[in-house]
């Protein structure tokens, strides 16, 4: 038995020594820098071959961890010119041997060599041997089958769990497409808004309007804020004809901007209906969601970047953990939902989200149905009279908007039971 082991060791010792002599061309730079250009990127922590040399269909090097033994393959399959234009990966070995004598002492120097023989245009047959002193092999990997990695692509994603809040903020901002619109039209848009605000405040002073001035809740706070805010702006022109002339001039400039066009349309629609809103003849969302304007507004209007910011953050979470479960509280009109679903859409039309639950008053569910269908489970709870909602399942991400959809919601985030409680009354 000992004689057989001696012969076995000699069988591998001689090729190891020959590989060290024959492989004289430095290949470490090739391995890590060149491989990065074909999608096989190794970060600084994983560039763990301390020495690497290439020869004819062979390579020799010093490895620091056992998994880096596979790094020996690339120089040996790269040919005389040491070039690869696409990724190659090992997918099987006929035999793997690991000696019980392999060292467990840190910083032990391990010698490795690899040989490769091309068997077809896109496949190779390879072997790897690792030893401590070029005599007795510690690891043997024989008849490895290597092939071009033609069935997948490698995509690197940031790990959101390892980022600080400011880093996340910077990353999200960099990934959001910046508006190409001329924001100088904001001054013009501001004038249009002021006209409607002044008209509404004047209506509150009329006999009809006095009875509808909000006396409590959010409505009261809103009116008080508006009355104070308009003091910071110059007064409107003295005559109605001058006001209308400047309004038309402002609109003509605003519509030249894509974002400005959809924004001023929403301003006009809301402004023209302010008195009807305060008399409760119509609901604000009823005015805003008529037709498709509301959905266009949330996709491109000025001041709606928060929707795409939220979507990008949820996307970062889903990139790391496909099959993410999302709970959206106060979903309201669903303006953010569209962007989230779009960000989670895969190239083949499937979604990175396994489940999405929305709680809100009203929503854009019909407008998002074409994207909802690819999610494993989608639930929507709606109704102004809802005061308690049932416990829902575990959620990976939670988005909170306006909180009048329910007074109390129970949910679980990463295994921890949480309670969401609102003291906002329905009247608010």
Automatic annotation (TrEMBL):
InterPro entries recorded: B30.2/SPRY_sf, PKS_dehydratase_sf, SAM-dependent_MTases_sf
Gene3D superfamilies cross-referenced by the UniProt entry: 2.60.120.920, Polyketide synthase dehydratase, Vaccinia Virus protein VP39
Domain of life: Eukaryota
Name recorded for this polypeptide: B30.2/SPRY domain-containing protein
Organism per entry: Fusarium oxysporum (strain Fo5176) (Fusarium vascular wilt)
